[in-house]
Amino acid sequence: MRLFETLEDIKEKLQNLSKRSTTGGATEGEANMSDVCDLADHLRDVLVEYQFSQQKAIFEQNCRLIDAVDLSVLNGCTRAKGAEFRHGTRSSCLKGTRTAVLDDIELWSRDYKASPVYWLNGVAGTGKSTIAQTIAERVFADGRLGASFFCSRDFQDRRNLLYIFPTLAFQLAQKYPKFRSILVPLLRSNPDIAHELPLSQMESLIVGPLSSSAISTVIIIDALDECVDEDPQSAILSVMGRLVEDIPNVKFFITGRPEPRIQSGFRLGLLRPLTDVFVLHEVDPSVVNMDIRLFLEHGLQELAERHGVEQDGWPTEENIDLLCKRAAGLFVYAVATVKFLDHSFMAPSDQLDIIMKSPGSTAHEGQANLQLGATLDSLYISALQAAFSRAPAGDDEKVRSVIGAVVLAVDPLSPSAIADLVNMGKHQVMKILQLIRSLLKLTENLDSPVLPFHKSFPDFIINSLRCSNERFYISPSTGHLNLALSCLELMNHSLGQNLLSLPDYSLNSEVKDLEERISKHISLSLRYACKSWHSHLIEVKEDIPAIIPALENFLQVGFLAWLEVLSVIGGARGAVLALEKLIPWLQEVTDDYHLLHTARDYFQFATTFLELISISAAHIYHSALELSPLSSLVQKFYYHKRPCPSPRVVIGTPESWKPTTAGSTKSFNYLSSAWSPCGQFIAIVAERAVEIWDALTLKLLSTMQSPTVATRFKRGVTYSPDGRSLAGCSHDAIIIWDTQTGGMAKEVKFRDPHNGLDIMWSLDGRTIGRISRGSYNVAAGHTYNFTLYNVISGATLSSEKLQSEVTPQFWACNKYFQVTTITRDQKSHTLEIFEAGITVTRIKSFPLKSHSPVGYSSFGPFSLTTHRLSVLISQSHNHDPELLIMDITTSEVLLQAKGSYHDICYSPDGNLLAATTKAYLSIWRYTPGRYVQWKEIPQQPIKLQFSPTLSSIFGYAGALLCSLHLDYPPTSSTAKSLITTHSRPLDAFSPHDTFIVTTYHNKSTLAVTSLKSPNPFPSQFIDTDLEISEIVLTGNVLLVKSSETIVGWLLTEDGEVDGILGNSRADQNDSLWKVSPQDLNPAFLARLEGRENHLEFAVKDDIAAIKYSGVILHAYHTRTGEIIKRDNLPSMRPWYHFKNPLNRDDCNIYHRKQKETPECSWPVSQNSLQEGWIKDPEGRHRLWLHPYWRAVGNEVDWLDKVTTLRLRNSSELVVIKF
What we know:
The protein has 33 helices and 53 strands. The longest helix has 39 residues, at 26-64. 33% of the residues lie in helices and 26% in strands.
């Protein structure tokens, strides 16, 4: 109705103008033309408003018609909320301003013969987002806007570039049914595609559906510079340069500051010819000043009318002129000025007087005409002075805490959330926010987020050079300390077990009213605290003791409840990232080893059970807690919180964290791998693909683009030193990818296809070296080629031949590489080291000595940081193979170990060495002058790689990709509580229970822990240099047995070493029990007299269990010697049972009847291994099966509510009682 009234009004005015033009002169005609132009602009605005409302109704109707199943699939796609132009409080351009640039963009958007990309380039404050909002409204009104994404550094999801294309795809699917019909099946078949790299995302989510549906549309991306992007050229722009020509009917309008990576992106060879550029800060200053003047005049006029200010002489021309001069071409200054004058209880004229009287510059100003600090600092200071002067006396600290919460928040906080965090009333917080309303985006809604009105305000107030007044300055360190402490205290107060009252055994997806429960029980402030406490904590560098108690309380009381909240709000991965950041922070700021050990243990828990935590909050207690190792601190602090009834794993729970923290059962021909320099990703080479995996979860993230379908990859993959590029070796070329986009950057063909063995990037990132196999000569051995390539041009810089009996090993060194070969004559082998660059020069040679003729030799890797080289020497058939570690600078042999070792690798610092045998993964640690064995893990991974942080080793074991977690550097203590609660095998008590002696780490070190001391850590360590098989403590004598030696120590009553008794030879079948005095529980020891080959034992309270020869279990009362149970146990470990008190009934668990009719009330499906769950008849998920069990599980049986799972290729047995 309003449209027709407006049209009638315009018609009447045009008729009047027509009459005037027939009677008036030239001057009158010019005035009429001006009036006609104004009417035309008014008509366009009215039509746009009408079209906008119609398009909005159409869009909402389309959304309502989307099939429920399709909508569920779309909603499951990761996207940024609030990024669309219709969300938020963004303003559009004032009528009559920015007309030239708006008309230019509109003409471009309608001309599909013009460039497909338009870049609105402008420095901060020039009004880019306002123009983008205006264009979005106009194009939406025309029905041509497909999608929009307004980036913002204030929101985590809207500053994440991986959210851009999935969010745009979601909006396109809402608008266009054809697009939706293509996208939904794609998301069903590959639901993780939204988590892939930008190149895969744009290809699959945008280009594929748009090209297939032939849709013409406009897509808007605003403030691209606010996305976190590590690429030297913007990752989004790099991807668009490759793909935008594939969708010629689509126009991309992009705004962004001229930052180096944005400029470099638009200068890329593929994108530059496809882009129109409009530079806002190069527009004629007179035109910009005219628009700013118009904006100020209009804004101040509205203020005067709203506040009842007499407009005669206010504002004066001098006022407007000075404001325009201070704006210096920046619209943001004009907007800030109008906001400052629009105060609820101060007259605009008084506010304007404050600005007029303030100095025209600050110490920071005047550096450049278009720097924000040069125009806004004085305005910010004026606003803050006015705000603080109106605050009650003595409230400066409260004002700063509220402002600090706004400018330092990881995600925007609402007034109510700020109130909870700073421990103030909501209305008191709102009152403080009102004082600085001109500097904020603030509504009257207490639950709406508060934002700085412009990004320049936080930059100003946390910079002591710009904000020199200590009364206003927000110290980032102090501010983050306060927020971290507030988050921890809020969680400690508000979190509780099963906060949402979820049904037992439920998955999150099965709780229909989950969102309502979340809204009811998890406040905005608690949600923020759970997601962001660690982000504030790691910024704290001082006053650490103030926050440690709250952190300890959170870890010991609220940890699992915190995981519950993250589980239901979809933030489970955030727990892993939080703990990953917490550990190095603790190492840096405190020497509290117990706290550090707790953080490491919890990190293991979160990593191991991330998949489970993501889908079920209830099973954090039912499954994850039950499957945690007996020695874990999670068990110590939380095992008593398990709901009853819950399944109990009575056999099969490890006594410590299993080395395999995550695994994938994806089967492929695994050739080689490489860690990214940051340690977050692993590149894996398969025959037909190079894949990027998440190093924490071993989840496939993306597959790098192959040049052709026929491409076959060979061994060899290497990251560039900065991690921005990845190179892989195919059968005929070196292929280089951009790691952030996943796009192929270069393909370097070589002349000797199919013979490539390995490639490596140089340390300066300019060249790539390649080793390939050449010819073979019986007399001289193999010929190998070393080739050096220029990364930028792809040119071959050099190619040299090398003779070697084995495949040469090479590594980056200085500008180029060093290469090792082994040559031989009739009697010996010689190790030679060459410097390989433009030329190849021999720099060292070593004879390889052995006690018998060498049959064959091969290389392990070289440690660049320590110059240590590993050589595998295979002797004649009468001698064992040998692993030799040499320091090539001194020719010193650091390790000489016999055994069939293979797949050797060094840690980045060279201080750890790992090698695999047929049964174990052995890890050695360097001590001055030699390597000593540190760990021996019953896993056999191959193609080993240490992570850059030394926290884990990645490898391939059978059907599993596995990440083996390392506690390195090792903590110097082990918590006594772990021992006294029998959460690990106990080796020996002192006679009067004054101390305990336990094996430590690799079972060559003994830890002595006093039971009287309040200190929970071992009082001393005894390095035995033995591989301990048995330990006995009787009286004050400590006896330790290895396979060949018995060593004795004399200890004091407090466990201090008082002397060594010497050592003697021991036969392999000897038992220490035979030579032990009868001081400890004589009746118990009498039972053991004469027993041979007892392998393991465990003690709890008055019960002891002993396993003989791997097959016989005896359980005794230690005080009376009475036998409780005697049974055959195929390779069962008795101490698993000591998590709970042992009793006679529980001993029946060990007895497994064969081929009997099941008496269980419900059978366990053999499909459990594939499904990953054991379910009851009602379909409830009773217990989650670890991925390791699923991968190697072979047989599932049940008996009387007991389920057993036998693991393939292993004697391990898992027994679960329901």
